[in-house]
Amino acid sequence: MDKKVIAAFDFDGTLTTSTSSRILFLKYLVGLPKVVSSLLSSFVYSELGRFKLDRLSWHDYLDNLILKDRDKKELNEQAMQFLEQVLIKKLRKEALECLNFHQQQGHTCVLISGAWDIYLKPLARRYHFKQLICTELEFDPVSHKSTGRMRNKYCLGQQKLEEFKKLYEHREDYELYAYGDSANDIALLNYADHAFYKCFK
Which molecular-function annotation in GO is an example for this chain (predicted)? Predict the structure, then answer.
């Protein structure tokens, strides 16, 4: 019996020419000056917090600063506009051709990224990924406003591999192709039968 074939694609820098769709989205929401000032604020927070055991990481602080108390419906609408106006233009033609090849072969295509579900969900549907593994924004169930936190850990590095293994437990049952471009993809690339690093240019 032939093994199932899975093709796992990182998003930022692999499928796209941008290394951080998260920063692009924050810029889209509030403008570049606000993102820059927030980045500086988060850096200062991080430096001042070096001696605090309970400190947030700088990116958690930045996310909280910009996202907290934003309405879910409004944020979803802005994410769709961001997808149409910005993100689609960042996709690599060669990467989409590779995705299409795997899909034509009947392979299970997985989008796996540290980027946010709010814009990756509609993108994954548009490009017919069978599975999306990513970082999920948290919303208050009563007010439907962003808490400024994530529902899960950022899907980066070893965490990316762990999330993948939760869905595909039995390694002997499948053959894995993995595509990535950064240190955050190394664990998954090392786990794959066929690893492709920075192959789309």
Answer: 2-hydroxy-3-keto-5-methylthiopentenyl-1-phosphate phosphatase activity
Tabulate helix, strand, coil % of the chain (nearest 5): 50, 20, 25
Q: What is the CATH number of the domain that holds 137?
A: 3.40.50.1000
As given in the structure block, the two tokens for residue 27 are 């810029």
Instruction: Count other Cβ atoms within 10 Å, centred on residue 175.
Output: 15
CB-CB neighbours of 54 under 10 Å: 5
* Angle, helices 21-30/32-48, rounded to nearest 10 degrees: 120
pLDDT per residue over 146-192, tens digit each? 999 999 999 999 999 999 999 999 999 999 999 999 999 999 999 99
CA distance linking residue 88 with residue 16, whole number of Å: 9
10-53 pLDDT tens trace: 999 999 999 899 989 998 988 755 545 545 554 554 444 443 43
Q: 131: exposed, middle or buried (C-beta count within 10 Å: 0-12, 13-18, 19+)? A: middle
Q: Which residues contact 177 (CB under 8 A, 6 or more apart)?
A: 5, 6, 7, 8, 102, 107, 192, 193, 194, 196
Supply angle C-alpha 66, 82, 90, rounded to 5. 115
Number of domains within the chain? 1
> Distance between CA atoms of 42 and 31, rounded to whole angstroms?
16
